[in-house]
Amino acid sequence: MEIQAAHEEVDLTRFEAALRTPRAVHRSSCIRNVQVQPGLSLLATELRLTEPVLVESETFPAVCLSVVLNGYAHGKTPKLDTGFRPGQVWISSTNERVSTRKIILRAHPVHTVELIVTPQWFEFAEARFGDDPAFDAMHAAIERPTATRRRALDARLRQIAWAIQHPPGLGIVTALYLESRALDLLALLTAEFQGNTTYLLPANLTPLALDRIVAVQEQIDRDPALITTITALATEFAVSPSKLKQDFATAFGIGLGRYIQERRLLFGRELIEQHSVSVSEAAYRSGYTHPANFTAAFRRRFGHPPSAIRRFS
C-alpha cells in the first residue's frame, strides 16, 4: 500500500472558524493533520479551553472512526447525537451534508483521534481492494444516509490512539510513525465492516486480564499522584508486579512506569496552564517528591522547563 508522506502540524485557524468564542482555546492546544493517502486523513486533537465553547460544523460524505480519550461535549443537533465523553468509539458514515452544533465543556482537556475516509480514497483503492467484501461494505455505507455506532473504547484502540497523541521523534520520524498508526486504524475500521471485532483485542490477554488492565489505566488517569509504587498498584489488583507490567505493555504498547510518568507530567502541565499554580505545587500535586525531578522530567518530555509555560500562562 503506497503511503503519500504529507504531514503538517496545523494551527487552530480552521477549528477556531467553527467557534463562537475562539479566544476560549488555550494556546497549548494542538491539532495534527496527517494525509496518509488520497482521501484518507488522520486528525489528532489536543484541546484545552478556558470556557465552554459552541462548535458549529457540517457533516460531509465520509466513513469515520473516532476515538475519545478525554473530554466532554453536549450535542445540540436535532435528531443527531454529536456529544461525546471519555472512553468512546464512534463508527459513523454518511452521504449527507448536515449542519451540526455541540458545546465542548472546559472541565477536562479534550483528546480525540479520528480517521476520516472520503470517497476519494475508495477511488484510489478500488484497483487493489475492489473485490473485497469489507471494502465494498464500507464503500456502500458512504452512499447511504447518516448512521452511527458507538461502543466502549477497547484496549487495542486506546493503545493506538494514545500512541498517536504522543508520537516519538521529530520530523520525518514523527510523520512516518503517525502514518503507520493511521493504517492500523484503517485495518481496525475495515474489521468493523467485516464483522471481525476479535481483531480489536490485544494478543495474549484473557478477557479477565484485559478488564483488569483497563481498570488499572482508569485508576492512573483519575489521579496519577496517588500511584505510589507499581508494587502497591499490583497488590491492589491482586497480581504480581511483573505480570502487571507485562500485561500493561501488551495492552497499550507502553511501559507501565512510563505511562504513570506521562500522566503525572500532563497533570502537572494542566495545573500550571489552567490553574496558575507554582511549579513546586504542581510537582507535589502530580506525585513528585522533589520539584527538581519534576522539572527535569518535564524538560525531557516537552522540550522546555515548566517555568516557561508559567511565564506565559
Please explain how this structure is put together.
- The structure is a single chain.
- The protein has 313 residues and is an alpha+beta fold.
- It folds into two domains: 6-200, Jelly Rolls (Sandwich); 207-312, Arc Repressor Mutant, subunit A, CATH 1.10.10.60.
- It has twelve helices and ten strands.
- The protein has a seven-stranded antiparallel β-sheet with strand order 1-2-3-9-5-7-10.
- Helix 6 (207-222) crosses helix 8 (241-252) and helix 9 crosses helix 11.
- The longest helix is centred in the middle third of the chain and has 23 residues, at 172-194.
- The protein starts with 5 loop residues before the first strand and ends with a helix.
- Mean pLDDT is 82; it is low at 1-22 and 197-201.
| Tally of separate helices | 12
Structural class designation: alpha+beta
Distance between the termini: 44 Å
Overall CATH class of the largest domain: Mainly Beta
Structure characteristics:
313 residues; disordered N terminus; Jelly Rolls; seven-stranded antiparallel sheet; 2 domains; globular; single chain; Arc Repressor Mutant, subunit A; 12 helices; alpha+beta; three-stranded antiparallel sheet; 10 strands
